[in-house]
Amino acid sequence: MDRSALSYADRVHDRPVGPCRLLTLQMPVDGFVSWRGSFRTHPDLGAHDDLVQRLMVSMLDKGTATHDRFELAAVLEECGAQLSLSSDGLYVDVSGQSLTGDLPTVLDVCADMVQTPSFPESEYPKVQAQTLAGVQRSMQDTAPHASRALMQRLFSVDHPNYSRPFEDELERLQQTMRADVETYHHEHVTPHAFTLVVAGDLEHDAVETAVRGAFDSWEGTAPAPTHATRATACAPGTATVPMADRDNIDVRMGHALTLRRDEDAYLPLYLGNYILGGNFSARLMNTVRDEMGLTYGIRSGLSGISTEYDGSWTIGVTLSTEALQQGLDATRQVVRDFVEGGVTEDELDAKKTTITGSYKVGLATTKRVAQSLLTNAERGFPVSYLDEFPERIQAVTLEEVNDAIQTHFDPGALHTAMAGSVPASVDEAGA
Amino acid sequence: MSTAVSPSPVSVDGFSFVQESGGIQQYELDANGLQVLLYPIDAAPVTSVMITYHVGSRNERTGHTGATHMLEHLMFKGTERFHKEHGTSIFDVLQRVGAEVNASTWTDRTNYYEMLPREHVGMALDIEADRMRNARLAPDDVESERTVILNEFDRGQNDPTRRLFDAVWSAAYVAHPYHHPTIGWRSDIETMQPEDLRHFYDTFYWPNNATLSLIGSVDAAADLEAIAEHFGSISSAPHDIPEVRTREPEQRGQRRVTVNQDGELGALLSSYKVPHGRTDAADAFDVLARILASGKSSRLYRRCTDQELTTNVFAMNFRMRDPSLFSLFAFLTPSSTHEEVEAAIEEEIELIQHEGVTDDEVARAQRQLVAKEAYGRDGPYRIASQLNEAIAVGDWTLYTEYIDRIRAVTPQAVQQVAQEHLHATQNTIGWYVPDA
Q1: Which residues have CB under 8 Å from B386's CB, separation 6+?
Q2: Domain at B15-231, CATH homologous superfamily
Q3: Which of the residues B155, B186, B366, B368 would you substitute to probe the A interface, choosing the one with the greatest number of A C-beta atoms within 10 Å?
Q4: Distance from C-alpha of B72 to C-alpha of A209, rounded to nearest angstrom
């Protein structure tokens, strides 16, 4: 029997293992597995815990109660395994790949780093300096400046979708002490909502044994959520970040969305946005790039949407200085026409087959499958949702899509953020 | 769990079986010399269709730099059959069935690929065959795409690291076309004429200058028949495909370049001339790159990053068709200087030249590369990407034989290539110095 033809609900083994919800999936690859996992930490964003969390995560591989940084690295590098820990808003994520036989060893290293880090004093200044340098390097790029400027207009500092100004970030990172990081770990790093997905060439029971061996003793009291759930009510406006020597301008437009990922209107709005800016044959690329030749890339998306807090509708475009005004005007015009006129049955049919086809294509790798299963679990959806997704897309009607567009998208409410060598003559308010 | 399927060669009229290696079968379409690689993998019902043309920026002449890349853009503007005017643009047709579609260019090749559900493989073959010889290359399309590419160029120029990379390659090569960036010089992009692109297309886009690869869900007999149906009527080139005759003259001394641009933190790129990608030396350099800069156990991590000279340092051995560059990238911390970092890198290289590397270092690098190779088989797209680079270097079996080649590398071989090639006389150093 071709096992890949069975549903995910049939093939995924989903069970609690110690403090962990473990999902495993056999996939037809040779001798390796990929994994994705997360646990909730609930940083107090208003108190800049997000930065403390980032430093804390960067310290996890710098030494534990029983191993120094080089010993930890040697275990992974000897077997060519990849293990990554990262700060992700309200979560800490773990991810990696290893040869199947090395999985127990790698999970032991991961558990050691997460549960018993030693936060060596000699390493903290290095981690802090490298984190600061990473921020400084990002400051050279126009894209993060534009994205951050937009998010600052839409959300307050205690909202998960907020992105703080670089200068503020540098200052607060410098002020954070090693003791703050250690205390944060003690108070926030627990197996709260700990989910781990492993996909690849595996035996379900063997993975379960490895996870139990690594994480069985992990415990702790879940921290309470403190983040804002609503976007900031703010009149639309423009933020410009002037940067020298940057003839390509990154532009972001957007407004907040109150829609949640588990609402009925989500899929119709997702389809509607896809018609506007979801891929190469969407309206924005078709008009602003293909017909007018104004940009290398333009897209729109539903960003930061969750089941718990507000997200946003964003449009991103890159424009050379000489095409900036024309590109801004053209983008706004396409968006206005889209919302005023809605979408057609033909467009909807085309994007339905695009989305269901690319869904199938996208789940051809262990990494992407593991990530999809994890994201699905974080949303609180059953595994069967992944099987039902194509049917749910097919069931969306034209009326539902146009209703969702009318209800949730408002061109008049779009904020604009630009970063680069922006000419003084540009009409920021738009044509 | 076995996934690669190695069936016997199939016999299909019009095709000659050439060879098999690592589960990949090579055929040649007798009518026109098109090379075909079939790699069946028992995974998802998805297939990658990729056509690799043996043309890249190494085939471009002065004044026409960027032709490879510009032509790749124009190839998406379509043919008489697949065109926006008829509602059949290439992106529309392929993305409608969920295909992941794109193309890329580099010094030694141009590739177009579609990863799509198995049942639509015929559609991808139809499009690739049609645009092999029937691209419109209309003047209006050239004009609208020119500004798109100029924006792409400007995006690249925003990045100091990209400017540094281009500056070092331009200094390292004075005669060979690796001198110029694949996207081309801005003035050439601004002035490229439709007839220039037509000439480039008519010179290089022929079946006997291309390799067609099908990876993933593959039915050898049925797919070869479909390939014959779509490509069989195309003739081979009516001329010899031009060879690149220029050889880079011997470098006789260290070269230095500096890039100034507004920014925050400096960077350094140190590159050495090394043999082409089909040599055993290239395998030894792959291992050396790991020993120098992969992970916290690596020499440059301990020497530079752990000592707060750099925030990151990595090594890349560019395996290419012609003699290439072994490169070390270092990103400086706010407190370090270019001189300090450059000296630290040179000391580590000299140490390897004088004392060699250990058995443990080589074994660890080999294990890392074996694991990386396994991860690289995670789905048809990743396989296609790696196979594409081997095709570009000039021998696709470099992909299937890679692990055996890496396992054959000895500590002595690593020391030897360091001694033979990592000389100051073969070195080009670039500094990015921010104008803050």
Answers
A1: B376, B399
A2: Metalloenzyme, LuxS/M16 peptidase-like (3.30.830.10)
A3: B155
A4: 51
Amino acid at A82: Q
> Which tokens is A299 given?
């897209």
Q: Which of B262, B331, B380 sits opposite A364 (nearest CB)?
A: B380
Which of the four CATH numbers 3.10.200.10, 3.30.830.10, 1.10.150.120, 3.40.390.10 does domain A3-215 have? 3.30.830.10
Averaged over successive runs of 10 residues, the pLDDT of chain B (436 residues) comes to 64 96 97 97 86 98 97 96 92 90 96 94 98 97 96 96 97 98 98 98 98 96 98 98 96 98 96 98 98 96 96 97 98 96 98 98 95 91 94 97 97 98 97 90
Instruction: Using DSSP bridges, classify how beta strands B427-434 and B255-261 pair: parallel, antiparallel or unpaired.
Output: parallel
B99 with A99: Cβ contact below 8 A: no
What is the spatial distance between Cα B416 and Cα B354, in angstroms, rounded to a whole number? Answer: 10
Chain A hits for B216, Cβ within 8 Å: 364
User: What ipTM is given for this predicted complex?
Assistant: 0.90
With beta carbons under 8 A apart, name residues in chain A contacting B3: 28-30
Cβ neighbours of B371 in A, within 8 Å: 32, 79-81, 97-99
The reply to whether B15-231 and B255-434 are identical in fold is yes
Contacts of B306 in chain A (CB under 8 A): 126
**B258 DSSP β-pair partners:** B431
For A309-322, give the DSSP string. Answer: S-EEEEEEEEEEGG
Which among B209, B193, B169 is positioned nearest to B66, based on CA atoms? B193
Cα-atom radius of gyration of chain A, to the nearest Å?
23
d(CA B207, CA B30): 11
Q: What is the pLDDT of residues B150-182, one digit of tens each?
A: 999 999 999 999 999 999 999 999 999 999 999
Task: Render pLDDT for B329-376 as a digit per residue (tens, 0 to 9).
Answer: 999 999 999 999 999 999 999 999 999 999 999 999 999 999 999 999
* Contact indicator for A59, A220 with CB cutoff of 8 Å: no
CATH class of B255-434: alpha beta
Put simply, whether A31 touches B (Cβ < 8 Å) is yes
**Residue B225: Cβ within 10 Å count:** 17
Helices (H) and strands (E) in chain B, counts: 16, 12
CATH architecture of A238-420: 2-Layer Sandwich (3.30)
Distance CA A108, CA A116 (A): 11
pLDDT at A210 over 90: yes
Map tokens 């690289």 to a residue.
Answer: B376
